[in-house]
Amino acid sequence: MDPRMIRFSLPMRLLLVILPAAGVMLGGMILVTLHLSQRVVERFINDYGRDTAQREALAISAGIQEEMTLAEGAARLVSALAATREREGVPPTLADRRQITEYLRQAAALHPEAVGIWFFAEPDALGPDGAALAAQDPLVGMAGTGRYALYATSQEGAVRLQSPPADFDAQDYYTRAQRSHRLTILPVHIFPIQGVPTTLVSHAFPAMVGDRLIGVAGVDLDQRQRAHIYEGHHPFGAPIAIINTFGVWGYHPDPARLGSAATFGDGPDYQFTPGERVFVNQAQPYSLERRLPDGSRLRRFTWPVDLFPGEGRRLLVMDVPLDRLARPFAGIRTAILMAGLLCALLLSGLMVLAVRLIVARPLQRLQAGVDGLKRGEYDRTLPDQNCPDVIGDLARGLEDFRQTLVERDHLRRDLQRVAACIEVAHDAIYMMSRDYTVLYANGQALTLVGVTDGETLLGKRISQFVTPETAATLAGLRQQIAASLAHTGVWTGRVDNWTTLTGHRIEAVEFTASNDAGGDILVVARDVSERDRVERERQILQRQILQQDKLETVGRLAGGVAHDFNNLLGAILGYAGFLVADLPTDSPARGYADRILAVGASAKELVRQILGFARIDAGVQEVVPARAIVDDAQVVLRSTVPATTRLTCMTEEGLPPLRANQTQMMQVLMNLVINAHDARRGETGDITIRLNRGPLPFTFPDDWAVADILPAPVGAPHVVLEVTDQGTGLAPDHLSRMFEPFFTTKGQDKGTGLGLANVHSIVKAHGGGLAVASKLGAGTVICITLPSLSGPSLSGRSMAAGTAPALSSGGAATPSPLDPAPARLRVLVVDDTEAMGELLREGLTRRGHDVTVCGDPQAALTLLADQTRGYNALITDQTMPGMTGLSLIHAAKGRNPGLICVLCTGYSANVDEATARAGGADAFFIKPLSVKALIDRLDTLYGTRG
Predict the structure, then answer these.
(1) In this structure, are 409 and 462 located in the same domain?
(2) What is the rounded distance in angstroms from the CA atom of residue 890 to the CA atom of residue 898?
(3) Cis peptide bond upstream of 138, omega within 30
(4) For the chain, what percent of residues have pLDDT higher than 70?
(5) What percent of the chain has pLDDT over 90?
(6) Taking 80 as the threshold, does the pLDDT of residue 463 lie above it?
(7) Domain that includes residue 443, residue range
(8) Residues 299 and 365 in one domain
(9) Which of 325, 352, 380 is the last residue of a domain?
(10) In sequence order, what are the beta bridge partners of 522?
(11) Which of 417, 445, 564, 873 is most buried by a 10 A CB count?
(12) Distance between CA atoms of 642 and 634, rounded to whole angstroms?
């Protein structure tokens, strides 16, 4: 038989397609039914059991966590009240105590499942305690002392408020949270609730303001009630149990096993196999099948139970008989068999359908394609062209004919599209003859020469429609155009100040001319005025950004220099302190050492000002004395302007405090003083800074131009910061624009135009007002209104000192003679600056401590890993080669959580008090540091942990 006959025979194609497909499908259905049915059931059983264990664990965790939030809410309420009063500078009031009492009452009424909700305050933590408070209202003060302590219980729908026993603060449920300053979960204990001894589990939360403890809030949960909650969970009719990571049963349906250790071993007599121990110890979920002594088979599912998020210390255990698990899936095997039978029936139907699809349908589609071509429908591709038979040959022949018709139709449409695109193009397009007469022009080309009708332009030259000046420019370019077209076939040029006879003017027009295949010249003209303007603005902006980058670089350099200088200054002040401690009072050398300390204190203040300029501040506003804004800036300002410029600062006495960001206010004064200095009319000048209660609205001389940039509310408490110069002054039309970004009158490359814009944004962020007055040849006055706080004025840095948290220490105060240490500690000092390391070695050794100094953080980790050294404390610098101080503390705490860790830094834009605490540091010091303050803090931390 001819192979071509086999290939193109339709019956043979039907056999080759239908018979193999039928055999493969039937065989596949049998294999899938026999092999996969059991695996499908097993997978469904395992997933269903694991999901059930997870739901049970989450339900138990959610119930307990909801009860724990009652005590946490009370602690947060007290912390917020105490912090608010501390910011306001007044002690808590009786209203605050009553607010806490009402919270406990409502919490006990809304959550009767909690046996008791309580709060016990430290003495005088919520205002002065006294016996008179209890006499006035027993719900705000304990009898005999007035100390706030309350216990709320809810039984049988009634809430009872009472004072706890007098020794309540001496018990574990109070003292553990008091000492640790964190959430404490107490083991099972007995406490009388309304006179009835009750088995409880307590969760205690400390209420803190910074490092200061206000009191402890707690919630007591009845252990028997919790057991009832567990007994109510019987998934698949099987009881649950809870085991902790130490292998002890926290709950078991058999009361005799409650609190006992689980058994691990091989065989049905053991509760867990040896392989399950690692999952129990790590509280990780797992599932496995086990067999009981009676021969029955169980499937064990486990899931972590967290009393609070991330705890991971308990595991729910659920043993379910396999017959109960498999019951919901018993019909799966039958369903799969029925599906196989249905597929076999469908396969039979497909055999009948295949004949129609392979023979009849292709012929019908070809007939429909021929009818479409008769109607002029050329876009529909004819089907069945890949068929290797007569139908395919017919389809391919008809497709070749259709492609010819489509190409002809596309060519016509392309010509129409090209003409439409040329007409609406933004560029002016001309077709010219060799003598530059216009043969064709689109709409934009007509606009360029100032005509509206194409017939007016055709057959004429463009030079007939422009001014004589523009026509002369075009005539001068013709020889250049002809030479370029003859040499390269393309010419590009531009004409500036293009002007038509109708008065239409364009700053710059760019022309491109090229030779056409027919011997004509194609000219494209484009208005590039906007492009030129954007390019000029881009170059100006690039210069301004470069100037701003230079300023940021200076700031980073200042911060780096201050960091290194702090290390050197710390060593100088430390050793000077040793001289003061060792030398007699009447010794001349003692006087020299005192002078070193005095000069060092001035140097420390200068470094602090430099750091304030260099630091990248996030804009946090704090309550500060009003005069501190000017005082802090004077040191930097006097070094900024030359000695020929006289800078005068005047501050009114008794000004109220402000809520401001001192670093940002320093930037405001720096920008204003620099601008005032640049406005001098000669080599000398006067700049005056005044801080007073100036009246609102401002009054200026009548002949001065005034601009109210940011209006300030009249009648509100305020202070006025005024900067006056006697410079060249500003024109009236410049006053309203002087605070715009990138606007400057200093000339090219002499100013970025960002300084006063920064002043505007800072004053606006502080809620202040801004006004400016100026007169050419007389000078400029800029007045800034800053909202003030009501209350007595603050002087110097009393407020900053009063609000400093207990964790932070620093400064270079004159050290006093070191007292004997309460205990001899083994201390590891890590600092890559040798002078600082030796200073700390000397100071700590004088106190009686055993000190090791290390300059490499990696070497310090090796020393800490040596258990024979037994270090009690680690003192580390923050910025060191290879590793930061916080990273070193994190690694050290991971090996020894009880190690006392102290972090010191000379300057870091990324590390502050809160960051050090979050990173595990027990104390934080800013260099140059006081050796005595460091040692006293170290002894205090050791005494607290001891």
Answers:
(1) no
(2) 12
(3) no
(4) 76
(5) 9
(6) yes
(7) 425-527
(8) no
(9) 325
(10) 431, 514
(11) 445
(12) 14
626-640 and 588-614 helices cross at what angle (nearest 10)? 90
| Structural domain contains residue 653 | yes
Which of these ranges, 35-39, 188-192, 501-505, 698-702, has the smallest mean pLDDT? 35-39
Which CATH number covers residue 845? 3.40.50.2300
Sign of CA dihedral 30, 34, 35, 37: positive
Q: Which two tokens stand for residue 221?
A: 């949960």
- Pinpoint the alpha helices (H) of 199-331: 223-231, 277-282, 322-326
- Among candidate residues 738, 765, 796, the one where a domain is terminated: 796
- Statement to judge: residues 73 and 200 lie in one domain: yes
pTM of the model: 0.36
CB atoms within 10 A of CB 766: 21
Structure tokens given for 909 = 């834009």
Asked if residue 928 lies in contact with residue 916, where contact means CB atoms within 8 angstroms, the answer is no
Nearest to 188 by CA among 146, 242, 226: 226
Lowest mean per-residue pLDDT among 22-36, 82-96, 478-492, 878-892: 22-36
CA distance 630 to 643: 19
- Cα angle 771-774-780, degrees, rounded to a multiple of 5: 85
* 509: Cβ contacts below 8 Å, ≥ 6 apart: 448, 494, 495, 498, 525, 526, 527, 528
Strands 249-251 and 287-291: unpaired
Could you tell me if residue 600 is inside a domain?
no
The whole-angstrom separation of Cα 773 and Cα 699 is 10
Same domain, 791 and 860: no
Indicate the SS3 state at residue 420: helix
How far is 103 from 100, CA to CA, in rounded Å?
Answer: 5
Helix (H, G, I), strand (E, B) or coil at 868: coil
Tokens standing for residue 577: 């302190």
Mean pLDDT along residues 657-674: 85
Instruction: Dump pLDDT digits (tens) for 97-121.
Output: 899 999 989 888 888 878 889 999 9
Each residue's pLDDT tens digit, 371-389: 776 676 666 776 766 777 6
**Residue 840 C-alpha from the chain's centroid:** 37
Query: Residue 408 is which amino acid?
Result: R
Residues 436 and 494 in one domain: yes
Q: Within 10 A of 443 (CB to CB), how many other CB atoms are there?
A: 15
Same domain, 181 and 249: no
CATH number of domain containing 712 = 3.30.565.10
* 90 falls within a domain: yes
Question: Both 413 and 320 in a single domain?
Answer: no
Element containing residue 781 per DSSP (H, E)? strand 779-787
Helix 662-678 to helix 626-640 angle, to the nearest 10 degrees?
40
Number of domains in the chain: 6
CATH code where residue 175 lies: 3.30.450.20
* Helix axes 361-374 and 390-424, enclosed angle (nearest 10): 40
Q: Are residues 313 and 339 both part of a single domain?
A: no
Would 242 be classed as within a structural domain?
A: yes
Work out the pLDDT band at 904, boundaries 50, 70, 90.
very high
Mean pLDDT taken over the chain: 78
Amino acid at position 421, single letter: C
> Is omega for the bond preceding 642 within 30 degrees of 0, making it cis?
no
What is the Cα gyration radius of the chain? Answer: 44
Q: Give the whole-angstrom CA distance, residue 628 versus residue 691.
A: 10
Look up residue 177 and give its two tokens.
């949270």
Q: Is 375 helix (H, G, I), strand (E, B) or coil?
A: coil
Q: What CATH code is carried by the domain that includes residue 363? A: 1.10.8.500
